[in-house]
């Protein structure tokens, strides 16, 4: 019975962590695709394709890339006895150098790259909006231009909020994951209980991004 429970816990541990990693990446890639769609709709409205097939292709690419990046972790996860009475932990079966390389790749492809892309796309949208609002307004049939309209601060704040929220939710978590790999001495003096608490808070931040996105993107 105990062995069956251990096997069930190991399978559940691997399944939950795999789904967590997979859905986080898929969510980030979906946000990037949405940002690109919004940029194209504003900057090139006459050339934007809104067909269902093209949308499905983009969704498929987002999930396919998420699966490809998450697969090494999914395959190698296993149960291992933790240190300092931490109990059994679900960790990947590779050495420190491999873990460092893998997490660095994930950071660049799933956080740094999409974050810079989202920032650049919305910065361009903000500039286009500002230019369109500050241009002189030409009335129909008139040879003189009226005063330019004032840009709405709400629009610019919304654009800024989307970008800052992305970085605020994901960057602290990934810094915390990469810190022990690149600067292991910095955390040795931090009590294990404190590290667990910080890890839970920063992990919660990543879920918080999915909680606030419906309000930003609608």
Automatic annotation (TrEMBL):
GO terms of biological process kind: neuropeptide signaling pathway
Gene Ontology CC terms: plasma membrane
Family matches, as Pfam families: 7tm_1
Keywords (A to Z) from UniProt: Cell membrane, G-protein coupled receptor, Membrane, Receptor, Transducer, Transmembrane, Transmembrane helix
Annotated GO MF terms: urotensin II receptor activity
InterPro entries, A to Z: GPCR_Rhodpsn, GPCR_Rhodpsn_7TM
Spans traversing the lipid bilayer: 15-36, 56-79, 101-125, 155-176
Entry membrane topology: Multi-pass membrane protein
Domain G-protein coupled receptors family 1 profile residue range list: 1-217
Subcellular location: Cell membrane
Keyword check for Acetylation: no
Principal place of residence: membrane
Family assignment from sequence similarity: Belongs to the G-protein coupled receptor 1 family.
Protein name: Urotensin-2 receptor 3
Source species: Tetraodon nigroviridis
